[in-house]
Prior knowledge:
The chain is an alpha+beta fold.
Amino acid sequence: MTTCPCCGGHIEGPTPLEIFQHVPLTGLERVIIDTLARRYPRAIPSPELVEEMYRDHYSGGPEQPERVMRVVLTRLRRKLEGTGWTIPNRRSGRGNVSRYRLEREQ
């Protein structure tokens, strides 16, 4: 049985990490999936996700990392089709910041 890290409730079926380990992903896609899966079911603000993406990059990342993140997320959403999971974009909070999280498709 798998439990939710936030509420301690039961998660039906395989965990996100178990599902996505067999999906062919690029390095940045893998960082995003791993980050979102570790935070599941909580959302992560886009600045934190960008920080995770380029944490180990020797130059700190590209000049427009948010743009790169959005492109990678678009490709990643296509790869997730048929897995039963998606990554919606929600804007909230001060400054209307984008927040991302893994969600089961309805």
